[in-house]
Design goal:
The protein is α+β, with helices and mostly antiparallel strands. 29% of the residues lie in helices and 32% in strands. β2 and β3 form a beta hairpin. The structure holds coenzyme A (COA). The site of coenzyme A has 23 residues, from β4, α3, β5 and α4.
């Protein structure tokens, strides 16, 4: 498994991974599939903001997963916190791609000076919760029934990883 920065050439693969999750999973709380154009807008806005979009490629060169992070909330007081997502194609799950992607996102967020990484996970998504625990995240909250999909109420589990030990925000913040 190889990790690299995503490029616009990866957008069809990223679109397929994203839309498969929209169609089949409670991990993403929407029924609205994206288009190549909307994914391109998302990709460009991430890149122009200096935010990563990374991909995992298998031995045959197929993109099997991706990860990214972006703003957690818009108000400026949240600017040292980012929220990430990681998605792996169904046939490639359990082979280590998710962990590689998440570990790289942690490194990148720390390297860019962010203080906290947030994961907002469907409460039934034991696989994602296990992955995050293995990478050092702690469950810090559960919001019962704040979402719905496929006829069920869904709980949102919030997990965080504090990326540095600064007692106060760095000077200039
Ligand atoms: C969650 C997801 C990203 C994990 O990626 P993955 O490539 O399947 O996971 P990995 O093979 O890297 O496993 C990483 C660790 O998590 C654990 N894990 C992964 N899936 C698990 C599962 N379903 N149950 C229990 N543990 C699991 C593994 O045991 C592994 O631990 P190890 O490194 O000590 O062996 C992937 O399954 C996925 O894309 N799921 C659908 C989308 C999704 O839920 N995204 C997250 C939204 S918050």
């Amino acid at each position: 498994m190889l990790l690299r920065d995503g490029t616009e050439e990866d957008l069809p693969a990223l679109l397929e991974i994203h839309n498969d999750a929209v169609r089949t999973l409670k991990a993403i709380w929407t029924d609205r599939q994206e288009t190549l154009e909307s994914r391109r807008d998302w990709f460009r806005s991430r890149k122009s903001a200096g935010l990563p979009v990374i991909v995992a490629e298998d031995e045959s060169g197929q993109v099997v997963g991706y990860g990214s992070f972006g703003p957690y909330r818009e108000k400026e007081g949240y600017r040292l916190t980012v929220e990430h997502s990681v998605y792996v194609l169904p046939q490639a799950r359990g082979l280590g791609a998710g962990r590689l992607l998440l570990e790289r996102l942690i490194e990148l967020a720390r390297g860019q000076g962010y203080h906290v990484l947030v994961a907002a996970i469907d409460g039934e998504n034991g696989g994602s919760i296990a992955l995050h625990e293995k990478c050092g995240f702690k469950v810090v909250g559960r919001l019962p029934q704040v979402g719905m999909k496929f006829g069920d109420w869904l709980d949102l589990v919030l997990m965080t990883l504090v990326l540095d030990d600064h007692a106060n925000p760095p000077a200039g913040h």
